[in-house]
Write a structure and sequence with these properties.
Blueprint lengths: L13 H14 L8 E2 L2 H8 L3 H13 L3 E5 L2 E4 L16 E6 L6 H12 L3 E3 H15 L10 H24 L4 E4 L3 H4 L2 H12 L4 E8 L2 H11 L5 H5 L1 H6 L12 E4 L7 H13 L2
Helix pairs in contact: 1-3, 2-3, 4-12, 5-6
C-alpha cells in the first residue's frame, strides 16, 4: 500500500493538508479499514516535510478516530463503516452528473458518493481510456493527447457517447448512477442539457448536475499529485492552460456547486449534504 505525495502549499498548515488528503483517501476507499500506514519517517520523506509535521497530522487523524496508533511506527486505518454501508435503492433512479476541470476532484466526490450509496460510478476515463489511447495512436497522435483537433473533434465525441450509453443502460434497469467527466462543453450547452434530461425523464429518472469548483492553485496540486500522462501538456504549460479555462464557469441550469478548494469544508461533509438533498433524508 502506497500513498502518492501531492505537493503542499502554504495557504493551509502542512499537517492539516496531509490529514485532509489521507482522510479523503479513506472516505474514497483508496485506504481501507485495517490498512497500515507507512512509518512516520517514510511519510515525511514522501511528503517532503519534517517528522514533526507528520506526527501532528497523525494526531489530527487519531483525534478524528480514522486511524489508531499502535506505536510510533505503526498506525492503522480505522474505518469500520466501509463494510457497514447500506445500498440505497430509490423508487425511481437518480443520475448524478459530476463535472469540472481536470484536478477539481470529480472522481474523489464520485467515489465517496458511490461508497455511501452502492450506486455504480461511471468515470469517463476509467471506461474509455484504453480505447481512447489506442485510437489516438492509430491516428498518429500521442496516447496522452487531450488538446489537439484530432482528439477534440474525432475522439472526444465518441467518449461521451459511450459514457451516455452506459449511463442510460443503468437507468433502463432502474439503477441510479454517478457519472464523472469534465462535461465542460456539455454543461454549457442548453440543447445537450435539455436532451439529456428528457432522455432520463422518459425513463422516470431524475438528474442532478454537480459542478466541482476548485481554484487554480488547488487544481495544480491535485494534477501534480495524480501524475497522469494526460495531464502532462497542462502541467508543462500551466500558465497557457489556465489562460483558456474559466474557474468561475457555472452550468446555465439548476445545479449544485461543490467547493473543493484547499480551504473549503471537507469533501465528505459536502458529499453528505448533497446526498441528503438527493434522497430527502
Amino acid at each position: 500500500m502506497t500513498l502518492p505525495r501531492p505537493p503542499l502549499t502554504r495557504r493551509e498548515a502542512l499537517h492539516q493538508q496531509i490529514a485532509r488528503h489521507v482522510r479523503n483517501d479513506i472516505e474514497a476507499g483508496v485506504l481501507r479499514d485495517g490498512d497500515v500506514l507507512p512509518s512516520t519517517r517514510e511519510l515525511a520523506a514522501r511528503w517532503d516535510v519534517s517528522v514533526y509535521t507528520v506526527t501532528e497530522a497523525m494526531k489530527v487523524l487519531a483525534d478524528d478516530g480514522v486511524i489508531v496508533s499502535k506505536s510510533r511506527s505503526r498506525r492503522v486505518v480505522q474505518a469500520p463503516e466501509q463494510a457497514r454501508r447500506t445500498d440505497i435503492r430509490l423508487r425511481n433512479p437518480h443520475v448524478v452528473l459530476i463535472g469540472g476541470y481536470a484536478g477539481s476532484g470529480k472522481t474523489e466526490l464520485g467515489r465517496i458518493l458511490a461508497r455511501e450509496t452502492g450506486w455504480p460510478i461511471l468515470d469517463k476515463d476509467t471506461l474509455t481510456r484504453p480505447l481512447v489511447e489506442t485510437a489516438l495512436e492509430a491516428l498518429s497522435q500521442s496516447p496522452h493527447d487531450r488538446e489537439s483537433d484530432t482528439y477534440l473533434n474525432a475522439v472526444r465525441p465518441r467518449e461521451y457517447e459511450a459514457l451516455a450509453a452506459a449511463t442510460l443502460e443503468n437507468v433502463e434497469c432502474g439503477t441510479s448512477a454517478i457519472v464523472t467527466a469534465p462535461f465542460i462543453r456539455e454543461f454549457g450547452d442548453d440543447e445537450w442539457l435539455r436532451r439529456t434530461q428528457a432522455s432520463y425523464e422518459a425513463l422516470n429518472a431524475t438528474m442532478t448536475l454537480v459542478w466541482m469548483y476548485c481554484d487554480i492553485p488547488t487544481m495544480h496540486t491535485y494534477l501534480r499529485r495524480r501524475g497522469a500522462g494526460r495531464d502532462t501538456a497542462k502541467l508543462t504549460d500551466w500558465p497557457g492552460y489556465t489562460a483558456i479555462i474559466d474557474p468561475n464557469f457555472r452550468p446555465p441550469v439548476p445545479h449544485i456547486v461543490i467547493d473543493n478548494c484547499a480551504s473549503s469544508t471537507s469533501l465528505q461533509a459536502q458529499a453528505k449534504t448533497l446526498l441528503d438533498g438527493i434522497i430527502g433524508r
